[in-house]
Amino acid sequence: MGGGGLHVLFPATQTSVRRALSTAMSALRGFGVDDDTRATAEIVLAEALNNVVEHAYEDRGHGIIELEAWRDGRILRFRLRDDGLPMPGNVIPERLPSDILIGTADLPEGGFGWSLIRDLTVDLAYHRDGTRNELCFGLSMSPV
Questions:
Q1: What is the mean pLDDT of the chain?
Q2: Is residue 104 part of a domain?
Q3: Structural domain boundaries, residue 125
Q4: Which of 28, 79, 85, 109 has its CB surrounded by the most CB atoms within 10 Å?
Q5: How high is the pLDDT of residue 2?
Q6: 60 band by pLDDT with thresholds 50, 70 and 90
Q7: Alpha-helix runs per DSSP H in 5-130
Q8: 22 within some domain
Q9: What is the CATH number of the domain that holds 35?
Q10: What global pTM score does this model have?
């Protein structure tokens, strides 16, 4: 994107995630990323970043998140890094079945965000390197 890309470090808090999302959306707009791709990026980033805040740092309640984005042809690439807890089993959660015809009390806790992330991204990959989580994914950019 414009010769470099986006690189943001911020505290792992809900307020900081909202600010980082706003910063990222402004940067992507400035780099000429279309409205549809920006909207998809905002959904996916919000889900992934909120998971980091809620789960990766649940043991200590604080930490730093690193967000990078860059263009790779018609793919908008993202990398998220944190030093929080690993994903259970060191893998991205499986896609949940989409049975929405059950009662609210019977809905499973969590997992829908990961199904959404899986549906909206390409090249989704998670890696644990020592004490560091790295989540990478791409978004197909809309034709111009």
A1: 89
A2: no
A3: 6-99+109-140
A4: 28
A5: 44
A6: confident
A7: 14-30, 35-51, 112-120
A8: yes
A9: 3.30.565.10
A10: 0.88
